[in-house]
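Thread: Newbie trying to understand structure tokens

Hi all, I'm a second-year student working on a class project, and my supervisor (Dr. K.) asked me to get a predicted structure for one chain before our next meeting. I've only ever worked with sequences, so writing a 3D structure as a token string is new to me. If someone could post the tokens and maybe explain what I'm looking at, I'd be very grateful. Here's the chain:
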Amino acid sequence: MAAPPCPALQREQQRAADIIRLLTLYRPLLDAYIIVSVPPSPSAPPLRVPPQPLTPASPQDFFTEGLWAQLPPPWQAALATAAPLQLARLLGGLGGPGAAWPLSLLAFAAATRALAFPRGCPGGSPRPPCQSTRLHPLLRRHVKPKKQHEIRRLGKVGAPPLPAPPCDPSPPRTSPKTFLYLQLLQRLTQATGCDRVVDVGAGQGHLSRFLAFGLGLSVTAVEGDGRLAGMAERFDQELLRELGKTGVPGNKGLPRCHQTAPCHSPPSPLTPRGPRHVAGRLDPSAPWGEFLLPPDPPGPGPTTRNPLGGPGGSEGGQRVLVTGLHACGDLSPALLRHFTRSPAVAAVASVACCYMKLSTPPEHPSSSPGYPLSAWVAKLPGHELSYRAREAACHALEEYVGRLRGESGCLRTHCYRAVLETLIRAANPSKKRPGVQTVKKAHTLSFPQYARLGLPRVGLDPAAISLDSEAVEAMLEQQHKVVAFFSLTLLLAPLVETLILLDRLLYLREQGGCQDGDGEGVTALPVLTLPLPTGFQCALVPLFDPRFSPRNLVLVAARTPLGAVLSGLDEDSSEDEDTGVAEPSGQKQS
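---
Reply by user tm_fold:
Sure, no problem. This is what the structure looks like when written as tokens:
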């Protein structure tokens, strides 16, 4: 007798189907991000008609393709008079006084919020502190505040607590964003009994150093760029030299906190146990024991085919925890595939990024694509996501809401690029949507200044083009319409990210033995934690503050229950607020 289908699986399958239906209905708006070579139809109907009659365009095509006229007339009337603060409230789902939005626009915005995964409620400082007083000074070196926040939060979920000195009963801490990730990894290692971690896509080794020196774990750092792997080793040696000067026990002589910041409990001492660095790229099709390809570009040292030793994928037969903080493109799906195939991998924690770099079936027919992963999503009509639709999922909705609320001058750059596209095509019709390198601080320039910097980058002479004509001025006066149109596209961005991450959760369910259901009569519910009856346990955790860490959803999967790992993370996050020196508002996070 067949086992009954999982109710949670049915809910998430229905949710994926609902998202695809909504994206299909508004695909012309979503595909306004897409740069293609097919010319748009001059008789394209309004946006309210589903997708096929419209041809994808780009925000830079706002004037050349008449994108504003393709919106439903009631939307045009409301958006044309909307102030930036009103657009911010529309994006944020806030009520109160504001524009009189058409019901169809309100329904569209409400549907996008209802189907997207919750991203947490941002609170506290609008940006991470300049330096964390809760991270050991040696571990703060070379690490940006955003990265500190991520490592700190993630690590708390994975490693056994180190013995603390008498004056400091707390576990080792770092700055907001980085420490959140460490919190997660610390709990995962405790739940799985692992003290071995493989950090894939380790970059310059910031996370690996904290796991090894700060938490005493055995860490193998794998990085596909040989130059970054070499830099990580130099940073390790730099830290070891400093430890040798001060002495490991207590690490005396080091500054305990930033001089201008209030001092919390001092950071715990470091151990002299550093990570092992391996230069190599992950091969998603290879067995776990032979999962590396040569680095690109190559590094100075030899490439290790199996960084973990034994035939089971771990040295001495121990199980390992695999993590990837901002694992780019196909790297995140590769981590999940290795988790499902290798019993030696006890758990995986992955933060994805660069969705536009995911491979799709038409691109690589002979290999497993990065999207879709699950059999369920792959069989749904309309599940395909184009390059720029996936790129849209990487945009920071919360950051843009902040710009709208502050009526930031950065908003004018969208209009500048759209006007520049009009001038480029008028001067040379063969140049459609050329790549124009970013003009630094474009919002501080006048349009003629901006154009004089941008036009030479596409081979055009600014002196031969009128930059202050009446036509140019008329387009610049429509900046508010360009901003409104861009705001609508951002409403769909979280939906695309949700579909990609939901596809990965469904893949884990399928690989873990959860039976497929027919999905009839099921409603879409915002369920993040997905316990499997057999096999794997998995969850999506909004771990970071989305305002300065837009990719804030961490996918966690394990072969043991996750209840103890996830319990109380919200309470822990309030303890991690750091009152260190705030970064100047004019400095951009990267």
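A couple of things are worth pointing out once you decode it. The chain is about 35% helix and 10% strand. The domain at 138-152+177-243+268-390+494-515+535-567 is CATH 3.40.50.150 (Rossmann fold). Feel free to ask follow-ups in this thread.
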